[in-house]
Amino acid sequence: MLASILAQVPWQAPSIDYHAIAPEIVLAAGIVLIILVDLFVGESKKWVTASLTGFVLLGALIPVLTLAVSDPDARSLFDGRYVIDEYALTLKALFLIAGYVVVLLSQNHVEEGDYYQGEYYTLLLTSLTGMVMMASSRDLVSIFVALEFLSIPAYMLAAWRKRDRKSNEAGVKYYLLGVFASAVMLYGMSLLYGVTGSTLLSEIGRQITVDGDFGGVHALAIVFVVVGFAFKVSAVPFHTWAPDTYEGAPTPVTAFLSVASKAAGFVALVTILYVGVPQAKDVWQPFLWVLAALTMTVGNLLALRQSNIVRMLAYSSISQGGFILMPLAVAGTGDAAGPALQAVVVYLLVYAAMNLGMFAVVIAAARTTRSGEISSFGGLFSYAPGLGVLMTIFLASLAGIPPLGGWIAKFAAFRAVLEAGNGWAYGIAVIGAVNSVIAFGYYGNVMREVWMKPAPNGETRAVATPTSLVAALTITGAATLLLGVLPGTVLRFGDLADLVGAFGR
Amino acid sequence: MELVVFVIAAAMVIVGALGVILRPNPVHAALSLVLTLFGVAVHFVALEAHFLAAVQVIVYAGAIVVLFLFVIMLLGVDRTEDISIEPFKVQRPMALVVGVGVIGLVTAAVSSSRDAIGRGNGLEIPTVTGDNDSNVRQIARSVFGDYVVAFELTSVLLVVAVVGTVMLTRRIKTGKGES
Amino acid sequence: MSDFLRSYLTVFWFGLAALLLASLLLGIAVLVRPSRPNREKLLTYESGVDPVGDGWSQSQIRYYVFALLFVIFDVEAVFIFPWATQLERYGTFGLVEMGVFVGVLLLGLVYAWRKGVLRWV
Q1: Is the pLDDT of residue A73 over 90?
Q2: What is the CATH number of the domain that holds C26?
Q3: pTM, entire model
Q4: What does DSSP assign to residue C60?
Q5: Which CATH number fits the domain that encloses residue B72?
Q6: Of A11, A107, B120, C7, whose CB count within 10 A is highest?
Q7: Per the CB < 8 Å rule, is A13 touching C93?
Q8: Cβ atoms A493, A68 nearer than 8 A
Q9: Residue C120: inside a domain, yes or no?
């Protein structure tokens, strides 16, 4: 019946606000451009693709900025399926800048290694397009397309070192567990669509209410969707792929996965929970509580035992994910919801700066040490003081020592949790506090190597750090310091991050 | 009659799915998948989604399974896989327990909220329109309406699939050493 | 039974008829023909190239790239079909959107062609 009515209604082209989707258009055009350039330039000029990727990312940042200062606070396209609000813009900017830093990190790595440059940047840019899209998606279909967009290139990037067994293992593990997670999530999404009759998150939010028809199917659907994203953000017990993938993938790709890909997972999770199913908090809060507690603790304990720095950073990034989940687990609704959303956004911003910085230092230092073992970083300060100091800053920030960015992030997370002020909140706050202390163990261990141990085989000559890496270190270092010294800036970003349609408003 | 169609199609799906995981020969497993996908196509027909049914047969049962077969042949799995050795002794019983558990959970969840689903919130029950290509029109309306951005970006994703495949299948670049 | 399913009943009868006809013809042939097998007759190809080796052999990865390209254009066809049924309705907007879609996919083909994977060496 519906169909036959539809057939008679004259069709009207959807009115598209091209300004609103300009970042996506720039990125898509950039992907096409880079493929074409890669096809028609010679082997010796392939570096052009790297510079072009950087320009495309900065070019996409321009419409994000003009949108931020332009008049309507929030633009909504396609009946609210694609929303450009301050939350989306903040995160789009985060993804684009993080992507730019990853390009800087990749430049020398990819040129010196035996990699296909054009393809590498094409895939990187595609994955970023998916993330930028994810920030605006308010509809199950768009979210799923964005998720595939950001994951599929990432699977291939993880396996980029074709002749290396570890890289192959990384790619296969990431791929198999990733598609499994997608399948579970898609099943959850299909159940949500089935019970509400809409793919639009705000419409689902209207349908799923506590006092309405809420049954087992609704709960199951929500749990499946959360499990799918738990894989994406590598929350324990869905983290098993992360250490092997992080270790095997090329290091710039690891930096990309641990920052941008993870942030995109959180963005989608937050959007679905806050816009789609805020009323069903009794289902997802206890579930997230357990996930957050497990993620923080298991990630930390396993990080303590690692001797390889990338594996240690993998577990540390799992554990940091637990801190991001923490406010969501107890402060999803009510008065505490605002600070919780703010805490998540602030944490993502700060975490991106410090973790990318950490990986930049590791990449720069590994040019000299030629090894990923923590012990090989011994005496780094004595022969490369700049890198030694920067590494200390990033480690201290990751550990949450004031006055660095990481401290503000942890502060915001704990404040949101305590705002909720119930037994669950105090419980997770205690677990979080204990874990913050445990984390000093492994971050401090690396610092001790850098400052106190002698260089392993008497290495005293540092390999020069290329310009692009210096630029990456400058951006991330400055961000980490500034966010810590001027907490007002980043906390205001959080405030701006007003998610349209959240909390059933 | 709908019930008969449903039972036959459901049996096809389940037998095919069991075949996929139980047949020791990977080629047979892939062919069992065709049965499953075909059963799903029959379900689509029963729900009056002709276009989806056609797509299911053409793309999934046709093209995707052919891709699977290519990969199986490519890996040279020309013998029956020996599945009697397993690295973790507990993993098979555990898989069984988890599998049965999930089935139980889904069944319990659906049956416990049968009333809630029936009460109008959910999807419209398809009605006979007599207009046989109506759902092609509905799809066109979605693709060119609400989901036009996702649709356009899908083309980029497909190209990226080509790029990735070509990259992964090409020989390593000559002239440079192995990394 | 709904009208809708009844229309599919034709497909069912048609399939049944095809099955019956085929088994009838083959069955009669089995009953009527003489059976004197020898080695030559049981070969896969009675004339032409002698079959060598096993039926299962590792295939070339090139087939895979071709198969994937095929799938991609198969999917393209799936999207074109709904548009093609209502060409006029979507007018210029539809034409532009579909043009972009096909254009981008064409880039994939150009890419594969330039990288030389379409050449059969």
Answers
A1: no
A2: 1.20.58
A3: 0.88
A4: P
A5: 1.20.120.1200
A6: A107
A7: yes
A8: no
A9: no
